[in-house]
Amino acid sequence: MIATWAMAYDGVKKASGELKNNISAADALEIAIKEVENHPFYKSVGYGGLPNEQGIVELDAAFMDGDNFNIGAVAGMQDVKNPISVARKLSEQQFNRFLVGDGATAYAQKNGFERVNMLTESAKSSWEKRIEEMKKSELSPYDGHDTVGVVCLDAKNSMAAGTSTSGLFMKMQGRVGDSPLSGSGFYVDSEIGGASATGLGEDLMKGCLSYEIVRLMGEGLTPQQAADKAVYEFHDKLTKRKGKAGAMSLICMNTKGEWGVATNVEFPFVVATETEEPKIYVARKGDGHSTIIEEASQEWLDNHEE
Predict the structure, then answer these.
(1) CA distances, 151 to each of 144, 154, 271 (Å)
(2) Catalytic residue among 147, 165, 263, 291
């Protein structure tokens, strides 16, 4: 498994342990993402996620099965505990696989998914503080947009990919980023590999980078080569056309369990392999089209824990 951000560590640890017991990639992915969704202190995913400009937590999630390309997704869903589970359920449908807003919420309730007020007191306090800051200065309302994305390979060589997020803090009501969009926030093919993205959705969705990385792996590039080529070439193109590129970080893994990462910011991520216990790494852009990846130092881990 490979997953975005250090917040995924506990979920990857739990799920990778189950993978050793031969559970499916799909089950392991759902376990890993639910662990993040359920944690109240991760302010960009699930319970405790930061709200939109109206003070409402709107949740996006997606699931993809690499064996058959089944995809399920939700966007703008409210008051449902585990969006990733709803997305996975939708992937089993013949039609109506991507639901938004009230339709997604109604589907979840109809199908027995747990209903929970996802706005915690901490998240509400952060929202109220940002409202006051905006009144006193011209501070941008937007702050934070970290998606948990996971790519998983199981013992039967099946793969799955998925995402979950509360999206951009203080976003307009109804705003959707790249996370639930196939080919942009995620993509997986069990005969090649999978990828997932996190960062500024408004820029990520312009490049369909998750699909592009899988395509490049299919042409024979290693995961690291594919990630470097897709991300940095698009970063340069976007910078040339628009003057700047928003934050974008991509993870990927192939059918051999080899992995790669590319990013234009400092980006922590989690990896667990057949021979390696779950570990947090930190990536940053190197010279040219390259990525520097180092194991997270104890000082970094202590700061993160605090």
Answers:
(1) 22, 10, 10
(2) 147
Mean pLDDT of 285-300: 95
Tokens representing 93? 């449908």
pLDDT digits (tens, 9 = 90+) for 48-72: 998 999 999 999 999 999 999 999 9
The model scores a pTM over 0.90 = yes
Query: According to CATH, what is the number of the domain 2-305?
Result: 3.60.20.30
How far is residue 47's CA from residue 44's CA, in Å, rounded to a whole number?
Answer: 9
Please give the Cα distance from 25 to 34 (Å, whole number).
14
Q: Tell whether 198 is in a known binding site.
A: yes
Model confidence at 101: pLDDT above 80: yes
Is residue 147 annotated as a catalytic residue, yes or no? yes
pLDDT at residue 97 tops 90: yes
At residue 139, the pLDDT reads 62
Q: Edge-to-edge strand order for the sheet containing 159-165?
A: 98-100, 71-77, 59-65, 159-165, 148-153, 2-4, 267-271, 279-285, 291-295
On whether 199 is known to bind a ligand per the annotation, the reply is: yes
The reply, when asked if residue 103 is annotated as ligand binding, is no
Kindly give, in sequence order, each residue whose CB lies less than 8 Å from that of residue 106, ignoring residues fewer than 6 positions away. Answer: none
With a CB cutoff of 8 Å and minimum separation 6, the contacts of 123 are 43, 48, 49, 50, 51, 57
- List beta partners, residue 161: 64, 151
